[in-house]
């Protein structure tokens, strides 16, 4: 078929087959906190990701078992476990992407900021090691409070002279998953037809889902309009309280791990695809930003060979979203400042 078309010429077919058969480039991913509630399933999903050629699993407790277990899966990534601080350098060396789910999770009644006293120090020491052993790596920060741990990481990297604002990401993908899921269920739409950017930060009212942008296709416009203002208000609140919903349901046994792992793996995969030159990779993330007056802000980000290609604008906001944006600024600003202060004083 199509004997006249250039793409079907034998030489073009050979070239296409040649490129299709090339394995993706070598990529090393390190997970810090790999034996935890998020770390373990994330180690599994990264082991299943064909873009990963080396997987370094680091934790201060329980790493050998997780590494041995995951290493028996017959996929591309070669797995190594690192179990003590002396081995952290080896775990990090040569990493393209470092994912950090190390630290304590919430219990019922706590805010994410209540984790600051323990997790800020953990993140600071891990980022100090990153600046020494893999200063060019992309960092995916999962540890809470993300609104403060990302600024802490930035300050640590600045002090070490290794800061690259294009390579530091607070992982907020779980907020996007929740917003899409809750919206699709309420609107009676297939989850795959819904895409909700979530902007701001990752705690309470700083999480701002843009439900007015949930559906781009005009076919669905009428159904979107059928959601009342009250519905949108309730969906916004549920998305903002999504983490607390899980913390309460787990009743003292931690916070979201499985949905977080799915979100974390989507985000790490997007970073790897970007590094490998795949086009049009866009995810929401909490990054250094000039979209608002705040120095860090979550919005849609285009990923490329050097990390962030472009921090994208917010698009058109509804009046409710404009109000939400103004209302979140004070809390987000103070969480960012708390992180910066900690990194520079301690
Ligand atoms: P967890 O307690 O099950 O696991 C944490 C792991 O970190 C443990 O294995 C622990 O040994 C390890 N750890 C502690 N100190 C360390 C250090 N210095 N170096 C390396 N590893 C260290 O907790 P979890 O449920 O996996 O949650 C981890 C973090 O992720 C929490 O702070 C939680 O709030 C956060 N979280 C963030 C999001 C998000 O959307 N960004 C979602 C869910 C959870
Ligand atoms: C979440 O959103 O589920 C996480 O940030 C964990 C938490 O403490 O809520």
Automatic annotation (TrEMBL):
GO molecular function: L-malate dehydrogenase (NAD+) activity
Enzyme class per UniProt: oxidoreductase
PROSITE patterns xrefs: MDH
Protein name listed in UniProt: Malate dehydrogenase
Binding sites annotated in the UniProt record for substrate: 106, 112, 144, 178
Family designation: Belongs to the LDH/MDH superfamily. MDH type 1 family.
Organism listed in the record: Spirodela intermedia
Matching InterPro entries: L-lactate/malate_DH, Lactate/malate_DH_C, Lactate/malate_DH_N, Lactate_DH/Glyco_Ohase_4_C, Malate_DH_AS, Malate_DH_type1, NAD(P)-bd_dom_sf
Occurrences of domain Lactate/malate dehydrogenase N-terminal (ranges): 28-170
């Amino acid at each position: 078929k199509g004997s006249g078309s250039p793409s079907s010429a034998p030489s073009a077919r050979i070239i296409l087959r040649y490129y299709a058969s090339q394995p993706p480039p070598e990529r090393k991913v390190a997970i810090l906190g790999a034996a935890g509630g998020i770390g373990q399933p994330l180690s599994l999903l990264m082991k299943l990701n064909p873009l990963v050629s080396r997987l370094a699993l680091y934790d201060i407790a329980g790493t050998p078992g997780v590494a041995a277990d995951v290493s028996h899966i017959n996929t591309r990534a070669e797995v190594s476990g690192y179990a003590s601080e002396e081995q952290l350098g080896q775990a990090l060396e040569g990493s393209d992407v470092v994912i950090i789910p190390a630290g304590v999770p919430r219990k019922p009644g706590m805010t994410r900021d209540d984790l600051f006293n323990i997790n800020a120090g953990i993140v600071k020491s891990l980022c100090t090691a990153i600046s020494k052993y893999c200063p060019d790596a992309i960092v995916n920060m999962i540890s809470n409070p993300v609104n403060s741990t990302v600024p802490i990481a930035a300050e640590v990297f600045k002090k070490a002279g290794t800061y690259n604002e294009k390579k530091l990401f607070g992982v907020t993908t779980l907020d996007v998953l929740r917003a899409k899921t809750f919206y699709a269920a309420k609107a009676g739409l297939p989850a795959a037809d819904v895409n909700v950017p979530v902007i701001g930060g990752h705690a309470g009212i700083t999480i701002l889902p843009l439900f007015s942008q949930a559906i781009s296709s005009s076919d669905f416009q009428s159904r979107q309009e059928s959601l009342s203002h009250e519905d949108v208000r309730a969906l916004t609140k549920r998305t903002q309280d999504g983490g607390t919903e899980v913390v309460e349901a787990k009743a003292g046994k931690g916070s979201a791990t499985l949905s977080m792992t799915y979100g974390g793996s989507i985000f790490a995969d997007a970073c790897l695809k970007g590094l490998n030159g795949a086009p049009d990779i866009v995810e929401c993330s909490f990054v250094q930003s000039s979209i608002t007056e705040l120095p860090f802000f979550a919005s849609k980000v285009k990923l490329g060979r050097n990390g962030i290609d472009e921090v994208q604008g917010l698009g058109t906001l509804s009046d409710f979203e404009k109000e939400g944006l103004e209302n979140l600024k004070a809390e987000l600003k103070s969480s960012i400042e708390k992180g910066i202060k900690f990194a520079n004083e301690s």
